[in-house]
Write a structure and sequence with these properties.
This protein is an alpha+beta fold and about 290 residues long. The protein has 10 helices and 14 strands. The strands form 2 sheets. Strands 1, 2, 3, 4, 5, 6, 7 and 8 form an 8-stranded antiparallel beta sheet that branches. The chain has a 6-stranded antiparallel beta sheet with strand order 9-10-14-13-12-11, with helices on one face.
């Protein structure tokens, strides 16, 4: 007989356009042990468990749902190993932050890989494949978050609030001016959306200071080495890549109630203006549009 876990109080879903996150009255230190028990219920292994950073991350879970097969597809698959396998891998990051009221905010991010057959004839015939990044899947995030709500004690009916995940068309809100992103919205919203954007880009934030508007970036590392380059490695040639060290930088968010400016600085506070910063700034702007 399983013990019935108490319902977590004050759970609600916050929305901003297509973004969803959970807000709870329970403080992070009380919630963290409860969240650890969630991932095994989905059959997922927890690979990163860092309460000091407020980050949980699962290992890559492989899904080999084969592509729909006709006679030709089945014949090719019988001759060439892994051809048309439509293999995918998924992992999730949960980020837990303390809210201004002392409760918790939970953000769930999905990362996806797809298996692609290498194009050259020799490699195709030997069945060689590589893993490439595929876009984050909002429907998967919605389903995982719905199940998390139920794990925390919400009724199934209430958890269904997350199932409608329609993207509302919005005017572009972020543009690059020089080495700064200008966002036409207030600081509080931009701060939250920047945190979500950094999650999506596979950026590891080792510390944050909301009062000063700073995210301290420890590393940019979505893909393990054996699975191919992440986007950071892809901006360098192979010779340059060997010399690239993990970036440590500050993402500085400054603004008022109407406009926010986001810039990248070195750890000593000087402007950051290298390939890493240029690419990160562009990708952040795309996420914040």
């Amino acid at each position: 007989e399983h013990a019935v876990l108490p319902t977590v109080s004050g759970v609600r879903v916050e929305r901003d356009g297509a973004e969803r996150w959970l807000v709870l009255d329970t403080p992070p230190e009380e919630l963290w042990p409860r969240l650890r028990g969630f991932w095994p219920s989905l059959g997922l292994e927890l690979q990163i468990d860092q309460p000091q950073l407020g980050i949980m991350e699962t290992a890559w879970a492989e899904n080999r749902a084969d592509a729909p097969g006709g006679f030709l597809t089945n014949w090719v698959k019988s001759v060439f190993k892994n051809a048309y396998s439509a293999g995918t891998r998924d992992k999730y990051r949960l980020r837990l932050e303390r809210s201004e009221s002392g409760g918790s905010e939970i953000y769930v991010t999905h990362y996806g890989l797809k298996e692609v057959v290498i194009a050259s004839r020799e490699e195709f015939e030997s069945g060689n494949t590589r893993w490439e990044i595929r876009p984050a899947d909002r429907q998967l995030v919605s389903e995982v978050t719905r199940r998390l709500l139920m794990h925390l004690g919400s009724s199934e009916q209430r958890a269904e609030q997350l199932s409608a995940d329609a993207q509302q068309a919005q005017p572009e809100r972020a543009r690059i001016e020089g080495e700064t992103i200008v966002v036409t919205e207030g600081f509080a919203r931009s701060w939250r959306r920047t945190g979500i954007a950094l999650d999506r880009l596979g950026v590891v934030v080792e510390d944050r200071n909301r009062a000063q508007g700073i995210y301290y970036v420890a590393q940019i590392d979505l893909l393990p080495e054996e699975q191919g380059k992440g986007w950071l490695g892809s901006i360098f040639s192979s010779e340059e890549e060997e010399k690239v060290e993990q970036p440590q930088l500050q993402v500085v968010v400054r603004g008022d109630e109407l406009v926010t400016r986001i810039s990248l600085l070195n750890m000593d506070g000087t402007p950051r203006s290298d390939k890493v910063a240029e690419e990160l700034l562009k990708r952040l702007q795309q996420e914040l549009k």
